[in-house]
Amino acid sequence: FNLEWRQIDFKKKVIYITGKAAANTKTGVEAVLPMTERLEKILVEKYNGNAPSDKVFEKFDYKRAFASACAEAGIEDLQFRDFRSSAATRML
Asked: What are phi and psi of 26, to 5 degrees?
């Protein structure tokens, strides 16, 4: 949620994870991430002339939203982190 528009380079199609955005990652290390065409399209649509220091994403309570979705679906004993290995497997 700390990613700012100045960290996105649409010409090079990369995202620079620096400063607070890097500090709040699991490793705390700065990085350069390539953008997929799909992500680029989403970010271009979202950009709308924001100032470089504006945040890309608004903060929201994803834990509460996930818990509500699980309750509505009748799913018990599922945590968001349970999807990590599934996601990694599918990405491979």
From this structure: -60, -40
Query: Is pTM, for the whole model, over 0.85?
Result: no
Q: Given the structure tokens 């818990």, which residue do they identify?
A: 67
Name the nearest CA neighbour of 8 among 61, 88, 25, 42. 42
d(CA 73, CA 8): 36
Distance CA 70, CA 27 (A): 29
Which pair of tokens denotes residue 78?
A: 């599922």
Q: How many CA atoms lie within 13 A of 58 on its CB side?
A: 4
| Number of neighbouring beta carbons within 10 Å of residue 18 | 16
Quick: pLDDT tens for 58-78: 887 888 888 899 999 999 988
| 19 vs 85, more confident | 19
CA 86 from centroid of its chain's CA atoms: 18
Residue type at position 38: R
